[in-house]
Amino acid sequence: MVALLAVIPARGWATDPPSSATAKGDRLHVDMTKRQNDAKKLASATGSEESPGGEARDVAHQALKKHTTVLCGMSMTAKCLHPMKCDDGSLMTWIWYEYPDGRTTDPHEGCASETETDDGPVSLTVERVIHAFRELPLPAAPLVIQPPKGRTLVNFDTVFYTTQGSFRRSVRLLGHRVEFRIRPNEFSFVFGDGHWLTTRDPGRPFTTKAALARDITHRYLTKGMFHPSLETTYGADFRVDGGRWRAVAGTVTIQGPELDLEAVTATPVLVD
Question: Which of 67, 179, 182, 230 could form a disulfide linkage to 256, CB 3.0–4.6 angstroms apart?
Answer without folding.
Answer: 230
